[in-house]
Amino acid sequence: DPVPPLQVIRPEPCGVCGSRIRFGKTAIKCCQCQLLLHTKCQEQCPSLCAPRPHHHAWPREGVLADFAPSTPPLVPALVVQCVTEVEMRGLTETGLYRVPGMEQLVREWKRKLLRAGAALPALSSVTDIHVVCGVLKDFLRGLKEPLTASPLTLLPGAATDIPDETASDTALRHVVSKLPPANRDTLAFLMLHLLRVSHSPDCKMDVLNLSRVFGPTLVGHSSANPTPLAIMEDTPRQCKVVARLLSLPPSFWRGFVGTEQENLVPV
């Protein structure tokens, strides 16, 4: 089912004879299976073809579940790949997550990863690890709902409004367990990662520093459309929530992702 001949912009192999179709040459592409071939090879083309499955890019923005895989643990591949790359070569970097990466590169790589969907390109070619950190933070900030936003405001309340620490811990664990599965699994994966960062003496990023960086990124505001004053008042509360989450033991977080941790590491 060929379309009218088109000009090749990028050299690609002919689907029939296998030799390269050079730049600027005329070619034919099947509009059903996307097979590209020389015009001279059209007669040798198989008469039947099967449509190729369309590759779906991720949305530019969405709730976390829009990016999560279909089987547990429900942690988006983008989050897994960024975290894996940071842990491979970033745990000796001072100011990890606090030092900004070049803004243009962060935007470019985030766009590239979202366009790629689950078939992510390797991040090993990103020279500056702070750019990878920036992509992760920007992805989390760009979600339609903050990671801890559902059930709305319950998590911040459990973290900041209960004076008794034991009761607060119990309430916090309960609210985390009731988050949507993708949010809960991703939060657990991130908390385990941030705990590892906090334990690295080279990073100089303790729980307090990390909670200041990730508070506004992970925790929602007290109202849907906060005023500048409300944003300013929310910031200390957001930081306290993340600090409280990081005070929960790693065994709690591993309960959500630990048994299947090996499934999270990209091959």
Automatic annotation (TrEMBL):
Which Pfam family is one of those matched by this entry? RhoGAP
Q: Does the keyword Zinc apply?
A: yes
Q: Name one GO molecular function term.
A: GTPase activator activity
Report the residue ranges that make up the Rho-GAP domain in this protein: 62-253
The record's annotation in InterPro entries points to: C1-like_sf, PKC_DAG/PE, Rho_GTPase_activation_prot, RhoGAP_dom
The UniProt record lists the keyword Ubl conjugation: no
* Domain Phorbol-ester/DAG-type, first and last residues per copy: 1-49
Q: What's an example GO BP annotation here?
A: Rho protein signal transduction
> Looking at the UniProt record for this protein, which Gene Ontology cellular component terms does it annotate, in alphabetical order?
centralspindlin complex; cleavage furrow; midbody; nucleus; spindle midzone
Keyword terms, alphabetized: Metal-binding, Zinc
Q: What's this protein's name?
A: RGAP1 protein
Q: Per the UniProt entry, what species is this protein from, by scientific name? A: Grantiella picta
